[in-house]
């Protein structure tokens, strides 16, 4: 068992707790860099899809996992990021600049929408954001001059420093684009959690009344969290639409938002690792179901994917609310303490305050 003997307060906010932890992530980064050289284009495309889902999932994780505000409207902001990026590219703007501006514009619009929306709490906020996701479908059709309406758009060509990023011609380039975006968003997320603003997010999540008593501006904190969350979701939506090659009003329907929420719950709510683990489940489970039905010799079953996702979500809510990463933390702790681990050391406890029950 390894213990961290801390002698300074700065050690609590280090990016990596120790050199061993740093070496593990460095080794993982090396594996990710050389991955296109060892797997074929099909599985490379699936891994790229995982990274894109993870970018969007980190956006919702920041809002729901770190600030405690549940949203079912992030599919609308993913669509906004995608259409904004494409429209900026059509003006002749380079992809990288259009991509970054799309995230910024989506974040600003998300923060403006959050000002009235975040006056709501709990299930009422969830319903309001769900209504936004449903309205986004009609808004995309109405604004057909910028969105292409029902016909949608074909993704424009992407060039970065003279290299064509094409899913079919150069899948490795698309993979590295998604990997680079995921790394940047993850570093921004991780450094945000180490800042005073990140501590304010956690305070608002645990108890708004206690956070307000400690001097945290709750409304401002929730608005910033919503804006940053929408910015990350916008980046993920831009990558998702461009990677698909063609998109319209049905590409970013409210089911995408529900899948995002399922993803972070299954992966582990409140953990950066949870966004990536959940993305793996979301991206690979349909392929696994398809392979299984082919192996059994049966035809595709309507609604099978949705039903399996629902059963998995219910199972995690009932038996492992901390998700896949939370289960791994418990297994690791049990192994470290063996044979002195106690049976009830992970017993669930009610941690909410009486003043928060009716929110």
CATH topology heading: ABC transporter involved in vitamin B12 uptake, BtuC
Strand content: under 5%
Spatial separation of the terminal alpha carbons = 41 Å
The global form is: globular
The helix/strand series, from N terminus to C terminus, equals HHHHHHEEEHHHHEHHHH
Q: Give start-end ranges of low-pLDDT stretches.
A: none
Mean pLDDT: 86
Residues in helix, %: 55-70%
Give me the number of helical elements: 14
The number of distinct structural domains comes to: 1
- Please state how the strands of the largest beta sheet are arranged side by side: 1-4
Secondary structure class reads mainly alpha
What is the level 1 CATH name?
Mainly Alpha
Q: In this structure, how is the largest beta sheet organized?
A: 2 strands, antiparallel
Characterize the structure shown.
- It is a single chain.
- With 359 residues, this protein is mostly helical.
- It has helices at residues 19-34, 41-66, 74-90, 95-117, 123-142, 144-147, 171-194, 196-206, 208-213, 218-244, 254-267, 272-296, 304-319, 323-337, and strands at residues 153-154, 159-160, 163-164, 246-247.
- It has 14 helices and 4 strands.
- The longest helix has 27 residues, at 218-244.
- The strands form 2 sheets. A two-stranded antiparallel sheet has the order 1-4.
- The chain is globular and about 60 Å long.
- It has a single domain (38-298), classed as ABC transporter involved in vitamin B12 uptake, BtuC.
């Amino acid at each position: 068992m390894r213990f961290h003997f801390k002698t300074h307060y700065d050690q609590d906010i280090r990016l990596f707790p120790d050199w061993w932890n740093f070496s593990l992530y460095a080794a993982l980064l090396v594996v990710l860099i050389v991955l296109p050289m060892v797997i074929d284009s099909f599985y490379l495309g699936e891994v790229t899809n995982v990274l894109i889902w993870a970018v969007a999932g980190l956006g919702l994780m920041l809002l729901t996992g770190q600030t405690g505000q549940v949203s079912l409207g992030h599919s609308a902001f993913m669509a906004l990021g995608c259409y904004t990026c494409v429209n900026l590219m059509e003006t002749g703007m380079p992809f990288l600049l259009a991509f970054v501006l799309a995230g910024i514009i989506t974040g600003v619009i998300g923060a403006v929408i959050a000002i009235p929306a975040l006056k709501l709490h709990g299930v009422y906020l969830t319903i309001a954001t769900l209504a936004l996701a449903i309205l986004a479908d009609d808004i995309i059709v109405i604004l057909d001059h910028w969105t292409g309406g029902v016909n949608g758009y074909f993704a424009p060509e992407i060039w970065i420093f003279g290299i064509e990023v094409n899913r079919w011609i150069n899948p490795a380039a698309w993979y590295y684009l998604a990997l680079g975006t995921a790394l940047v968003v993850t570093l921004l997320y991780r450094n945000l959690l180490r800042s005073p603003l990140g501590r304010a997010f956690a305070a608002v999540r645990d108890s708004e009344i206690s956070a307000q008593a400690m001097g945290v501006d709750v409304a401002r904190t929730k608005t910033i969290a919503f804006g940053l969350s929408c910015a990350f979701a916008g980046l993920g939506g831009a990558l998702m639409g461009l990677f698909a090659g063609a998109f319209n009003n049905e590409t970013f329907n409210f089911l995408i938002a529900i899948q995002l929420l399922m993803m972070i719950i299954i992966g582990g709510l409140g953990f950066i690792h949870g966004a990536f683990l959940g993305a793996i489940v979301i991206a690979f489970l349909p392929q696994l179901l398809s392979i299984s039905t082919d192996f059994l010799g049966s035809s595709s079953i309507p609604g099978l994917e949705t039903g399996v996702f629902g059963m998995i979500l219910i199972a995690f809510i009932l038996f492992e609310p901390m998700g896949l990463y939370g289960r791994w933390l418990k297994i690791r702790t049990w192994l470290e303490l063996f044979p002195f681990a106690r049976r009830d050391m992970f017993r669930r406890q009610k941690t909410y305050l009486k003043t928060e029950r009716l929110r």
